[in-house]
Specification:
The chain is of the alpha+beta class. Helices cover 14% and strands 29% of the residues. The strands form 3 sheets. Strands 4-15-2-3-14-12-13-6-5 form a 9-stranded antiparallel sheet. The protein is globular. The protein starts with 18 loop residues before the first helix and ends with a strand.
Length: 286
């Protein structure tokens, strides 16, 4: 089986908006912050630097559990970023390094949508004909409005995470339920992946490292001849406490984040999109 992510359109191949790195690096002492649980922080070391991914089991519980399990087994250590398309994504997690391999565990079903309750901490930032667009945790989310919860048996609303820069997704073959070990990290936005692939987390630190990974030629669909490696990947919970990084993320409901969003909204004007914003982070330790 070949595990490939659909190629980005010309529009979505654009590089990250200039506002994204600036927003992600801003830290305000007056902001409200939350600490990412160690079991939900994936620490990926490469020769180009370290990448920290916040896993979100509320959005894709089976995919998160799979990545946690394989990472803490050491399965990902030494595996290649075998397919890298500049401005789109970097794919890894294949023990064969060809895009054809996986683990000895059973495949994971697609988790393309989820049910959103009020406890998700979702903050709405804009509305368009498809629904409400906002942030929950670190993730960009498209959802039905809260009013929909009043007419559903589970008091929840339909939602899906979106493939914005930094979002981590499960790779799969043509079968929507064939995700296994391979995953990809987005370096650009690509709406064509939404509802077709499972988003399970987001890079909260080190997106510049992902963007610096050796790319493959577009003519070869991003296949890399001399790929960079994941030298080591573990959840922070599997790292000795004195060596693990600690990540704090600004809460989307905080006044400081609201002010940052308005700043970016003003700068971008009519071009503003949900992919232009991501809660800032603070990283210590490690």
């Amino acid at each position: 089986m070949s595990f490939k992510i659909a190629a980005a359109s010309a529009l979505s191949m654009a590089l990250l908006p200039a506002s994204v790195p600036a927003l992600a690096q801003t830290a305000s002492p007056a902001a409200e912050w939350r600490t990412v649980a160690p079991e939900n922080l994936l620490v990926i070391d490469t020769a180009k630097g370290r990448v920290l991914v916040e896993l979100d089991p509320r959005i894709a519980p089976q995919s998160v559990e799979r990545v946690r399990t394989l990472a803490d087994r050491g399965f990902y250590d030494g595996l290649k970023f075998h397919r890298v398309l500049e401005g789109f994504m970097a794919q890894t997690g294949d023990p064969l390094g060809t895009g054809q391999g996986g683990s000895d565990l059973p495949d994971v079903p697609g988790e393309f949508q989820f049910r959103r309750g009020r406890d998700l901490g979702y903050v709405n930032l804009m509305t368009d004909p498809t629904g409400q667009l906002g942030i929950a945790g670190s993730m960009p989310v498209l959802t039905q409005p809260d009013a929909q919860m009043m007419v559903t048996s589970d008091f929840k609303a339909a939602a899906q995470a979106l493939f914005c820069p930094g979002v981590a997704g499960m790779a799969r073959s043509q079968d929507p339920n064939s995700a296994n070990s391979q995953f990809f990290l987005m370096t650009g936005a690509n709406a064509s992946l939404n509802s077709l692939y499972t988003p399970f987390g987001r890079v909260v630190d080190g997106l510049d490292v992902v963007a610096a990974l050796t790319p493959g030629p577009r003519a070869a669909d991003g296949k890399v001849d001399n790929p960079d490696l994941m030298t080591r990947a573990r959840t922070a919970g599997a790292v000795p406490e004195g060596e693990r990084p600690v990540v704090r993320v600004m809460t989307p409901a905080s006044p400081a984040f609201a002010a940052l969003v308005e700043q970016v909204r003003t700068e971008r004007g009519a071009l503003f999109s949900i992919c232009d914003v991501q809660p800032p982070v603070q990283v210590t330790g490690g």
